[in-house]
Amino acid sequence: MSVQQLRSSTTFAVIVVCVAVFTDIFLYGLVVPMLPFALADRVGLSDADIQPWNSILLATYGAAIMLGSLLFGWMGDQTRTKQLPFLLGVGVMGGATVLFSLTISLPLIVLARVLQGCSTAIVFTIGFSLLVETVGDRHIGRAIGFTSMSLSIGIFAGPIVGGFLYDLAGYFAVFIPAFVLIALEFLLRVLLIAPTHDPGLTHALIQDEQRPLMPDTGGHDARQPKRPPAVVTLMRMPRFLVAMAGMFLLNCFMTAFEAVLPVYLPEVFLYRSTQIAIVFLSNTLPMICSPLGGSMVDHLGPFWPAVLGFGLITPSMMLLSLIREPSPLTSLLLRLFLFLFGCGVSVAMPAMMTEVTLAKDAMEEGEPGIFGDLGACSQAYGLSNAAFAGGTLVGPLYAGYVREAAGWTAMNISMGAFSGLMVILVIVFTPRKRPGVVRTTRMGA
Question: Which residue windows are coiled coil (predicted)?
């Protein structure tokens, strides 16, 4: 295989997107453990102001992802190649990291969080649509499984590395691995040869097949009706909305536990931070097996993996309501139920992300040209990523409020009920068989 073939291969594209996902999430998590200390020591906030501003910065990040996903999704579909907007993401990521490392100004730290959100939006819209165009629909489930694994590793590794380096060597040492990863990511994105659209080919064939044998010489207006925006068209399809709802709920569940468990476990088991991190391994480690879930999606379609995934999540969350007293048995059950939860996520996540693409493709097959010549791949992932980001905002707020107002049991049973509702929605709206789809792309620089 020549260097040119390697740079344009599906394997290299999967590696580049996986590294992009890992780097982006790792850099986000890297500053999480030391951010409260930075707000106090570098910005000078009082103890009373640190918790509100820490929450504001999290909400700012989520809001930037939601808005950025829509913007960059539209941008990605307007370009013949995803290369330039994908490279833009490295610059945005680098700018956010420089601001975090140097600034002592609160507004600039907020700006850094906004840039981080935009970087995440670019990775999960431009990057994933690039992956679909390179890999093709037939093997996208396994490819997305690898990106889900990268996401899980980044979520777990970022805070651990950040906290360790901050305690060992101080504030600036935290950013050394950040800049190394950014340099590596820039090199990989430059080397990648992304596929380019040749929309004229596909749509010309469609138009030739649909063109009447005799021209219409009538006096009526032959102009084409104006198409609604692609995001509006996508949001009209129940199947696509269910895929978005699945992405939203999965992130709601994950961020809910991230917000509540660090508070609840010290109250019940008197755990310290290291023990809490070990507990989180119970639901993070199974997510490393996401490529297996993706392979299931490629062979079976999204329906059965989604039913299995949410079917595991539902009882595991409800059974967590039993963890109310400290004992060796409840400690073991806590880890078991979280492990089952992680297994469910590792299967459901690739299924829902693949369904985003298949639902969009089904609309194009049913009504050729519905999204115009440039298609709507990036915008479809932009919408699903906006829904996923919405889970970042809603999950911690919902879990925290319900636990304070109604207790730990009510919180877990209610979230399990939402997962059970998701199983019903998948059964009603997601097709059980996956049609074969052939995507037309042209490889180019």
Answer: none
Q: What per-residue string of b and e applies to 105-114 under the rule 16 or more CB within 10 Å gives b?
A: ebeebbbbbb
What letter represents residue 164's amino acid?
F
pTM, to two decimals: 0.76
Cα–Cα nearest to 150, from 21, 269, 58: 21
CATH pick for 1-198 out of 1.20.1250.20, 1.10.230.10, 2.60.40.1910, 3.40.50.10490: 1.20.1250.20
CA distance 140 to 378: 15
Q: What is the 3-state secondary structure (H, E, C) of 195-211?
A: EECCHHHHHHHHHHHHC
If one looks up domain 228-436 in CATH, what number appears? 1.20.1250.20
Residue 250: name the closest of 310, 165, 167 by CA: 310
50-91 per-position pLDDT tens digit: 767 876 787 788 888 888 888 888 887 777 777 788 888 899
| Domains 1-198 and 228-436 are alike in CATH topology | yes
The closest of 121, 290, 89, 269 to 194, measured between CA atoms, is 89
Supply the DSSP string of 56-103, one letter for each residue: HHHHHHHHHHHHHHHHHHHHHHTSSBSHHHHHHHHHHHHHHHHHHHH-
Residues 346, 290 contacting (CB under 8 angstroms) = yes
Decide if 302 contacts 359 (C-beta within 8 A).
Answer: no
